[in-house]
Amino acid sequence: MKVISGLDNFNVANVKNVAWAASQGGASHVDIACDAGLVREVRSVCGNLPICVSSVKPADFVAAVEAGADMVEIGNFDSFYEKGRVFTAEDVVAMTVETRRLLPTIPLSVTIPHTLALSEQVKLAKRLEEVGADIIQTEGKMGVNPQSMGVQELIEKAAPTLASAFALSRAVSIPVMCASGLTDVTCPLAIAAGARGVGVGSMVNKLPQPQQMLMAVQVIAQSIGREPSSSATSEPVMDVLSTVSSAVRSQQKTV
Hints:
The chain contains 11 helices and 8 strands. By secondary structure, the chain is of the alpha/beta class.
């Protein structure tokens, strides 16, 4: 279970609040914008909670990892869609290959654009596994604030990312993380669909106060059976996912 502050969120106070809530509420890691200074700021409030940085510029990952990021992610494309930028399968593969060239050992998560048809998402996921991705992340169609919606609307909103999680988890051997528009209502559905983890952003990072963020993280953790009091200092799930991925690749090489 990761908590996402936002790829284009460089508001230090907000990101630190999100990271603090994630560390105290039972998340396994926090996903922040790719910036070395931001990594250092977040580390000051989240202790040993693993930090993932997200970007669409592989070269930017290097400084963030040197600053202490534990994991990198190509994706969280939502902010770019609003600006009219769409990522093709070729774009995503190229970014993945370049990231692996720059950082051959760092745990790497790669997002599959929801703009691709489901069959194309499956093809891309298989290709990404081949070129070195450790985790595949799904995304859904954004645009509506989930906090203002009823249960039925929350499930309907999550349908695209749940469908991707179901299809991709059966197409690749590496773990699939389901994200985009998820809440405590739909996170359990993501796990049931085959996802090994969930990523939650707006249910937490849009809240005005850190204590509210903490309560939201705790509710989400409870919804998927994680103890709200458990922090990443004792169980960094990111490490579990990357270990599983490494084992899978070793088996494939042996075969």
